[in-house]
């Protein structure tokens, strides 16, 4: 995934009930709360930079399929190492869980990443992220109509804002100025991300986030290895020079960035920040990613939006913020 929204699942599952009724850390310690917020914002910045870095890698000749393949494998190795260092026993897995991990890794990890990469090849990074970020609206609607759990009425305002904002972003009165296939990829990415949230909710009920990340990225790596055998991987593309801020660096170095600073580091920051500030604030602060990504893409690659599209993006973000707070938390949620 490309954003701190990787962890925007149900508050109870993500933060867990407090021990012996103790108050959550972020309510007891304002300093811990400030540090946690800083961690989540830092993660959003790293994820935002990752969009531009990934686009530069793909512009060098490494296609989106092979980029997500190497990202999943390398991230899986790092997450397995981290989980083993933290708690080797957490990596134990039963046969009954294998099916879930396979589905979660394929749809929730492999497809979300590939669809996002495929979208940003054809559209500005910020617009692709805005559309993908509508996943919380889809989750809230699923919870309301399929799970039949209470959802605050603000979800309807959120849905309306998202629709109006996307109309402005796409400038539909001008005949839909966005790339059609890129738009489709972004919409499918939003759907896959919503599935990732919902399946992650179930997965985190029975295992810690680091081991879940290890197994899900591992499953995604296996999926891509079957679809694209490694002996077909264009390793020569990793040596292609890429111009970055006036300097020429090999594409492989940018791939290392995508794995370590675009996946593992921000994911770890979100996990740590989440324990300090709770799920709702984590999700809300994560909405900083699309505007940050747009600013970085503008500075690095000259991607720019029209004033109408900027207004539309702001309207979409307002809808996402409402959607993030639409689900009714349980009494044990922070």
Structure description:
The chain has 334 residues and is an all-alpha fold. It has one domain. 70% of the residues lie in helices and 2% in strands. The protein has 14 helices and 2 strands; from the N terminus they run ααααααααααββαααα. The chain has a two-stranded antiparallel ribbon. Helix 4 (64-86) packs across helix 11 (251-277), helix 5 (95-122) crosses helix 10 and helix 7 (135-145) packs across helix 9. The chain is globular. The protein starts with 10 loop residues before the first helix and ends in a 10-residue tail after the last helix. Residues 3-26 and 330-334 have low confidence and may be disordered.
Jot down its keywords.
2% strand, 14 helices, mainly alpha, globular, 334 residues
Range of helix content: over 70%
User: Which ranges are low-confidence, i.e. pLDDT below 50, for 5 or more consecutive residues?
Assistant: 3-26, 330-334
Count of helical segments? 14
Report the span from N to C terminus: 25 Å
| Total separate domains | 1
Radius of gyration: 19 Å
What spatial form do the alpha-carbon principal axes imply?
globular
What is the structure about, briefly put?
This protein is an all-alpha fold. The chain contains 14 helices and 2 strands; from the N terminus they run H-H-H-H-H-H-H-H-H-H-E-E-H-H-H-H.
